[in-house]
Write a structure and sequence with these properties.
Shape of chain B: globular
Structural class of chain A: alpha+beta
Number of domains of chain A: 5
Strand content of chain A: 15-25%
Number of helices of chain A: 24
Shape of chain A: elongated
Strand content of chain B: under 5%
Radius of gyration of chain B: 28 Å
CATH class of the domain at 144-252 in chain B: Mainly Alpha
Oligomer: heterodimer
Number of helices of chain B: 7
CATH superfamily of the largest domain in chain A: DD-peptidase/beta-lactamase superfamily
Structural class of chain B: mainly alpha
Number of strands of chain A: 32
Helix content of chain B: 40-55%
Distance between the termini of chain B: 96 Å
Largest interface: A-B, 118 and 102 residues
CATH topology of the largest domain in chain A: Beta-lactamase
Largest sheet of chain A: 5 strands, mixed
Radius of gyration of chain A: 35 Å
CATH superfamily of the domain at 144-252 in chain B: Tetratricopeptide repeat domain
Order of helices and strands of chain B: HHHHHHH
Chain lengths: ~775, ~250
């Protein structure tokens, strides 16, 4: 066409002069065309390659444990509602659709969202939960029939991002809530369904405005062009880039249909910045700003998100709520003008507040300590690329409710201890696990738990002080022919010459000797003299072997000082050690991850429950008994000023030299917690194990309301009546008679019956513990 | 300028259009599947391949609601045809009568009153730990009863195991374990699945753990010892297996 026109014109005029010029022009045009065609082919290949392949790499998503609901579950209504709020459930008059909840007295009706778990899909269903006190008293379906068990969807607690991280939650077009597509088209590109990638009308307008303004300001881009810009091109603003963008937009429209392009747009668009993490796509934006899945968003929320497309930073609803509100209402006006919604609907939506959630409540990246643990466990099994690109779904045992309780216990205790000099330099770490399953449920790595940094729960390796002592006593009680809980031991000063020639002379904390005491009293009162004496009798290497069997491998030298906790461990190690004590002598590797699914919900890996019996349950039973006495009558007895006396607990305080480390490790039936307080520079603190860590522990247990410890009595253990004064065999009803557990055969011969007294008195004596 | 680019664009589009396959010829594969919460619903699971042949149908969860179903959770191999649920509690009461589930009942030296029961509300569903007779014909010993959630999950696990999904079964059993960590039947089933998975060492350990919670339940103890015997056989420890079988006999 070009050719014929130019040849005609040239023939009419002075052909001889113009012919060479025209020839050149023709050739140049041809060359240009070929070059351009080549460029177009190149662009086209680029468009298709990127668009038809995997469009995005998705960081792995980490989920908390799903809340299991069943009749008899220990759960308060308040905690339940906290969890529902974190999951973005809407309070409504009646639970009408997924993600809604209605509360009436003790009954909570909700419509769960459903989720794909490792062992199968949990359906989305209406569920009615009836609470009674601190328990779930009834669980039923929407139609009133009983429901055995139901799971909520798990809270998303973070992701594993690469250095420059874009994050998104991919959505399908049919997950878009009502109004989203119409609003997007109405606000960003009214011609979307009619143009072929570029809208000449918009371009002309933009060109005119830009020409008159002298600068490139006006967009006039179609949705397709915006997608191309974000997807393939840099942020540079130039005519060349604009043209490339237009070409690519046309190419994209040529190959893919409108819904495809729209879906890609919904997932690509940038909607906010969360620290290092770029929030892309409406799916993630919905979670990020409203803690809700996209499909549940209402008109006012849709209008806000679409309004933010124009300037996610400028219209950030958390930082600039007024701007964002104005923009949202403007969008609503546009919707009325375009006939998408009625004036009444828009007016109603305008009445609504912005509705964005507060940052840091239970939102993403709020639990750096636990996520750090998860990452470390994952890095043993996966390559970094797998974790940052494949969209894996990581299911963990993290319990956000327990985490919040441990955090507030820590904060409140530190505040309460605020009067003590030097408390402001004290750092903290805490590990909470389930003693039955070995699952980590909460973890604190810093006294400011929401700030990522040095994870003391895993990395602060500090002298454990008296936390070692149960290992000494366990070593003894494994030899029932030699030691029972009521064996006599001497709590007297002594000194030994170590292998290195140095004289070691242990001292009690109160600098006193306590004479001849029962074996268990040495542990209950954390006496150093009797414990060290006992440990030397047993042999330091044997005690260290016990520590090893409890689950902690260490290379401590077999010095006598190790018997009093000169060896260093991390809080996590201590938790492992006490886990074995709490679970009847069965060692369980502590786990934070339950399972991993691929991006499309296929089971990939499981981290199964594993146990190994390391100790005779009888010996463990006796040690637990002595550790209960720590709480009843020993160094941990202050717990019962805050906790009910019928709550049986076991634990041990630990204080390192000069109060540099304040430890407490202890457990109930269903909760194990280890607390460490100390300074990063290893300086002195104003705290002992009892005045510091134990206070945090107690505060946590008070909030967590655990089940009393109740280890079943092993077959080889018998309960015998003994005289509390002299340890001789006694009988029920005798004065001073108390019941003590013994490995069968090691108990004292029963004494003669005294008659008369009701055994109930003796039980009371037992509860009161021994006076010494 | 603008015009030039437009014409160039038009030409390139024409060329590109000829040079490339037509629309739809290249499938759009989106390997980064949606990660949103709502996506795993059965309703739009078209793009989700079924993980395994018989993974977790929704139906097992409804089983416990069916009073007449009489679900027998476990028939210990070799012991007898009688289901565990109907074993007698044994003559002597167990030393620890701790309820098996973390329900409101907590025993110990001083049992705490269970708050869940104090409400006057008519509870059609009885809290865990208390025999209700709902799931069985009645007349069973208290400690042989399984609660609704545990029973439901064991049933699910059994179906998964039956369909060859041992990992799924294992996972469901661990769910049950979290609800009732001290129920030896759960540990028994977990040990059984581990054995089927070829992990004889863990099977024995789990059974040993189960034994620590099976005081006063001789039939269950026998089953656990038999399972330990199988695990030892599997590891070539004939002598140990013999000892375990002897213990099983003594237990009964």
């Amino acid at each position: 066409m070009t050719r014929s026109r130019s040849s005609r014109s040239s023939s009419k005029r002075s052909a001889s002069r113009l012919r060479p010029w025209l020839g050149w022009a023709l050739k140049l045009a041809l060359v240009g065309l070929v070059v351009l065609a080549g460029f177009a082919v190149y662009l086209d290949a680029q468009v298709q390659e990127k668009f038809s392949g995997r469009r995005w790499t998705i960081p792995a998503k980490v989920y908390a444990r799903p809340l299991e609901l069943f009749t008899g579950l220990k759960l308060t209504k308040d905690d339940f509602l906290t969890e529902l709020d974190a999951l973005g459930y809407r309070r409504e008059g009646s639970a009408s659709g997924p993600g809604s909840v209605s509360v009436a007295g003790n009954a909570v009706e909700l419509y769960t969202r459903g989720f794909q778990f490792y062992e199968g899909a949990e359906p989305s269903q209406p569920v009615r939960v009836r609470f009674s006190g601190t328990y779930v008293a009834g669980l039923s379906k929407g139609d009133g029939s009983d429901l055995a068990v139901a799971r909520l969807e798990p809270l998303l607690i973070g992701g594993l991002y690469p250095a420059h991280h874009e994050d998104r939650i991919l959505i399908k077009l049919d997950q878009a809530p009502p109004y989203l597509l119409d609003t997007l088209v109405a606000v960003e590109d009214r011609e979307f369904y009619h143009h072929h990638g570029v809208s000449p009308k918009s371009i002309a307008r933009a060109f005119w405005i830009n020409a008159t303004a002298g600068q490139l300001r006006q967009g006039g881009s179609t949705l397709t062009q915006q997608l191309v810009k974000n997807f393939f091109l840099t942020n540079e603003r130039s005519i060349t880039r604009k043209a490339t963008e237009a070409m690519m937009a046309v190419l994209l429209e040529l190959h893919y249909d409108k819904p495809d392009i729209l879906e890609a747009y919904l997932n690509e668009v940038f909607l906010g910045q969360d620290g290092q993490r770029a929030v892309h796509g409406f799916g993630l934006a919905s979670q990020y700003f409203f803690s809700q899945p996209l499909s549940e968003l209402k008109l006012h929320q849709v209008a806000l998100l679409v309004g933010m497309v124009k300037g996610p930073t400028y219209y950030n609803p958390r930082r600039y709520p007024e701007r964002a509100l104005e923009r949202r209402n403007l969008v609503l006006d546009v919707l009325v003008e375009q006939g998408v919604v009625s004036a009444e609907e828009a007016a109603q939506a305008k009445q609504k507040p912005l509705g964005v959630t507060k940052r840091g409540s239970l939102a993403d990246s709020s639990f750096p300590g636990f996520l750090d643990l998860v990452k470390r466990q994952l890095r043993q099994d996966y390559r970094d690329e797998d974790l940052t690109e494949e969209g894996l779904r990581i299911f963990t045992s993290f319990d956000p409710i327990l985490q919040l309780k441990s955090e507030s216990a820590l904060t409140e205790t530190l505040k309460r201890l605020g009067g003590r000099k030097g408390i402001e330099d004290v750092e903290a770490a805490m590990v909470v696990s389930n003693p039955e399953t070995g699952e980590i449920q909460a973890l604190i790595g810093s006294r400011q738990p929401r700030f990522a940094g040095f994870n003391r729960a895993l990395d602060a390796v500090r002298p454990i002080g008296s936390l070692i002592k149960p290992a000494v006593y366990l070593t003894a009680l494994e030899r029932p022919s030699q030691y029972t809980l009521t064996s006599w031991v001497a709590d007297e000063p002594f000194s030994v010459k170590g292998q290195d020639g140095q004289v070691w002379k242990p001292q009690n904390y109160d600098r006193k000797a306590h004479g001849t005491i029962f074996l268990y009293q040495g542990l209950a009162n954390s006496y150093n003299l009797s414990t060290a004496k006992l440990g030397l009798e047993l042999g330091v290497p044997n005690v260290l072997k016990t520590v090893e069997r409890l689950g902690v491998s260490q290379d401590w030298p077999a010095f006598p000082s190790m018997l009093l906790g000169a060896g260093s461990l991390s809080p996590m190690n201590v938790a492992t050690m006490y886990q074995t004590l709490a679970s009847g002598g069965f060692n369980t590797p502590l786990r934070g991850i339950r399972s991993v699914l691929t991006a499309d919900g296929q089971p990939l890996k499981r981290y199964p429950f594993q146990v190994e019996q390391r100790f005779d349950p009888g010996a463990i039973y006796l040690v637990q008994n002595a550790m209960q006495r720590v709480m009843r009558e020993g160094t941990g007895r202050s717990v019962y000023s805050q906790l009910p006396s019928n709550l049986t607990l076991a634990g041990k305080t630990g204080t390192s030299n000069d109060s540099r480390d304040s430890w407490f490790a202890g457990f109930s039936q269903d909760l194990l917690a280890v607390v460490w307080l100390g300074r990063d520079d290893n300086g002195k603190t104003p705290l002992t194990g009892a005045t510091g860590a134990l206070q945090v522990w107690t505060g946590f247990m008070r909030k967590a309301d655990p089940l009393p410890l109740d280890m079943p009595v092993p077959n080889n253990v018998t309960l015998a009546w003994v005289d509390a004064a002299n340890g001789q065999g006694s009988a029920a009803g005798c004065p001073n008679a108390v019941q003590m557990p013994y490995i069968r055969g090691s108990e004292p011969a029963p004494g003669p019956a005294c008659g008369g007294d009701a055994p109930a008195d003796s039980v009371m004596d037992w509860v009161r513990g021994w006076l010494n | 300028m603008n015009k030039l680019w437009l014409s160039v664009l038009a030409a390139s589009v024409m060329l590109a259009g000829c040079a490339t396959p037509q629309r739809g010829a290249i499938p759009v594969v989106d390997s980064g599947a949606p990660l949103s919460n709502e996506e795993p619903l059965a309703g739009n699971g078209a793009y989700r391949p079924t993980p395994r042949a018989a993974t977790a149908p929704a139906q097992p969860r409804s089983v416990p609601q069916n009073d007449d179903s009489g679900v027998v959770v476990m028939v210990p191999p070799g012991a007898s045809a009688a289901p565990i649920q109907s074993y007698p509690a044994g003559g002597s009461a167990p030393l620890s009568s701790a309820p098996i589930t973390p329900g409101p009942v907590t025993s110990g030296p001083a049992p705490t009153p269970a708050p869940a029961y104090t409400t006057p509300s008519s509870a059609p569903s009885v809290p865990t730990g208390i025999p209700s007779g709902v799931h069985s014909g009645g007349g069973l010993a208290a400690d042989e009863q399984l609660d609704g959630p545990v029973l439901a999950l064991l049933t699910t696990a059994q179906q998964q195991q039956g369909g060859g999904d041992l990992n799924g079964a294992s996972s469901s059993l661990e769910r049950a374990q979290r609800i009732a960590p001290r129920e030896p039947q759960v540990l028994y089933r977990l040990a059984e699945v581990r054995l089927a998975q070829g992990d004889a060492a863990q099977a024995e350990q789990l059974a040993q753990r189960g034994l620590t919670y099976a005081n006063g339940r001789p039939a269950l103890q026998a089953s656990l010892w038999n399972l330990i015997a199988q695990a030892r056989d599997r590891r070539g420890d004939a002598a140990g297996a013999g000892q375990a079988r002897e213990k099983a006999r003594v237990s009964l």
